[in-house]
């Protein structure tokens, strides 16, 4: 773990962009604002339709200006980046108006439930000449990001199998929130992280998917909360996701394995986000495992990671690695998974 306030990602050369946040809910308070404070970023104002929530959040994080109408936030010329962290409804309108004022946008996952909405937001940003990044923060969660660096170093060779397993229980703690009513919640809201990770790690979008889901008798969520997904990639790579969000045990964990032609990597986060561990070995020395020290935590280091990536993309005038355009492939995979569940068959992932 990173000690104290040590940043695990390098501060962008310019990092004093004025940030305006839309949404003062759970994730903004738990992760966005702690991350931005740790990185010393310039949060200028915040907006939420819930006056109590936005007032309390502004007070807690010492943000001098807050609004209940996002247009007041968009009207400010000292805000350069809009950080959207609201549920799906209303996002397209906000993005349309934000990019029209020349502001760049970071938007929470899932980028959009509907393909047309995602496409429209990408086109709006492109036409306005601003950057649009999707807050797929798992890519910047330290244990997942270090794994990507190990893959990219070539030490594992060509990848042919990736597995990811998660066991937690949001059904117990979020059963009375709006999340519990979202159709296919487990896929669109949680597995979207793992779907995107598979693309991040492999550098590819799967060609075909098959997903089977089930539910715990008596569970709270409308959505099935157990999902088993198989992914087929072009070059023989296979991926597997096992996501269980109803476990009745108190042993909550994330575990993943990666097999390549030159080596193997095993990763785990045990006991409720604690003890992240990665180890890998090569076929030349299969008994010698290397365990890199993993600095930092998903909450909140990953959340300045995504913001830094957007800031770097702005000043280098390039697409963010987490661009809306790239994310359309993550959404296509998500939609194919939903079709697979509904039609009980293997589904080809739409190419674009
Ligand atoms: N790891 C992660 O990246 C992560 C974790 C949790 C949530 N999320 C995502 O973040 C988003 C928000 O989740 P949350 O847990 O903070 O939800 P939440 O319900 O706690 O907060 C959402 C807030 O948005 C406000 N809001 C809704 N519509 C608005 C609008 N048009 N204008 C201004 N404010 C509006 C609501 O009043 C509420 O305060 C969701 O898309 C969720 O999937 C991401």
Automatic annotation (TrEMBL):
GO terms for molecular function: nucleotide binding; oxidoreductase activity. Residues 147-265 form the GFO/IDH/MocA-like oxidoreductase domain. Residues 19-135 form the Gfo/Idh/MocA-like oxidoreductase N-terminal domain. It comes from the Bacteria. Pfam families: GFO_IDH_MocA, GFO_IDH_MocA_C3. Keywords: Oxidoreductase. Belongs to the Gfo/Idh/MocA family. This is Gfo/Idh/MocA family oxidoreductase.
